[in-house]
Amino acid sequence: MPNYCFEKPREYGERAKALRKLAPQTERILWKALSALRQETGLRFRRQHPVPPYFADFACVRASLIIELDGPSHDARQDYDSQRDTELRRRGWTVMRFSNEEVEKNLEGVVMTILKNVRIR
Q: How many whole angstroms separate alpha carbon 94 and alpha carbon 45?
């Protein structure tokens, strides 16, 4: 995935909106589960949240937590993902990665792992 470097914040919003529309099924499944957490825990997650020049699949700004889902395309870009995660961590974010398969086969376990790693700042 290329690094997008937009000059106007509005472009981030437009790109995020386009990414949400193209979301794979596993992202939609996890989004539904994360959205439900808001009523139970007060945690608010965002989809395709811009963290320039990147876009996080899911982000809880209050907890400085980014959740990334890795599908088959991530197999060929592990170095890029590693560098990206390092940069996001340097900026104070906690980054968690799950495979699409984990979400499909063990959604409850994924959500419980996320909740165990949430630290409100």
A: 14
How far is it, in rounded angstroms, from Cα 65 to Cα 86? 14
Q: Which value, to the nearest 10 degrees, does the dihedral of the CA atoms of residues 13, 19, 25, 27 take?
A: -50
User: Would 54 be classed as within a structural domain?
Assistant: yes
Q: Helix (H) and strand (E) counts for the chain? A: 5, 4
Give the pTM: 0.78
CA within 13 Å, CB half, 41: 19
- Write out the residue range of the structural domain in which residue 17 sits: 9-116
84-114 pLDDT per residue, tens: 999 999 999 999 999 999 999 999 999 999 9
For residue 93, the tally of other CB atoms under 10 A from its CB is 20
